[in-house]
C-alpha cells in the first residue's frame, strides 16, 4: 500500500557564520549515549534518569553529525554542510508506544549548509507534517511540541551568534 503525504519543508536563512552557528548548535544539544540501550532491560528507571540528565536545550540531544560537505571532496571541492540527527528517545517513545511507525522519523534531521554566497542556511521537514500522516492524536500532539522545540532551539542558537 502506498499513499502520498504533504510535508512542510522549512528553509531558513540564518544570518550567521556557518562555523559559529554549528558550534553553538552542537553545544546547545545534549548527547545520546548509545550504551544506555544495553541497560534498558536491566534498569529502565536508571536509563530514563540518565536520558533526562543528558538532554540539552529544549530537551533535545544529538545522535550524530554527518559532515556531508566534506564528502563532496570525493567529487571536487568540499563545502560546509552538516546533517544533524537529533531528538530525544523519551520523546520518541511517547509517540512510538502509540504507533510504532513514528519510529521512521525519530530522531529528526536538520541540514545546515553554507551557500555559494557564503550565507548560512538550514533545512528540515516540520515534525508535525511527518508524524501527522499516522492520524493518531497522541502522536500528533507530541509532534507539534517538537515543532515548537525545534523553533525555540534554532532561535536561541541564532541569538547566541548574531
Description:
This protein is of the alpha+beta class. The mean pLDDT is 96. It is built from 6 helices and 6 strands; from the N terminus they run E-H-E-H-E-H-E-H-E-E-H-H. A hairpin with a 5-residue loop joins strand 5 and strand 6. A 6-stranded mixed beta sheet has the order 1-6-5-4-3-2. The chain is globular and about 50 Å long.
Task: Considering the chains and any ligands shown, give keywords for the structure.
single chain; 162 residues; alpha+beta; 6-stranded mixed β-sheet; 6 strands; 40% helix; globular
* Helix count, DSSP H or I runs of 4 or more residues: 6
Gap between N and C termini: 47 Å
* Largest sheet, spatial ordering of strands: 1-6-5-4-3-2
Return the average pLDDT rounded to an integer: 96
Strand content: 15-25%
Which of globular, elongated, flat, extended, rod-shaped describes the shape?
A: globular
Listing every helix as H and every strand as E from the N terminus to the C terminus, the arrangement reads EHEHEHEHEEHH
Strands, count: 6
Structural class: alpha+beta
- Largest beta-sheet characterization: 6 strands, mixed
Low-confidence stretches: none
Percentage of residues in helical conformation: 25-40%
Radius of gyration: 17 Å
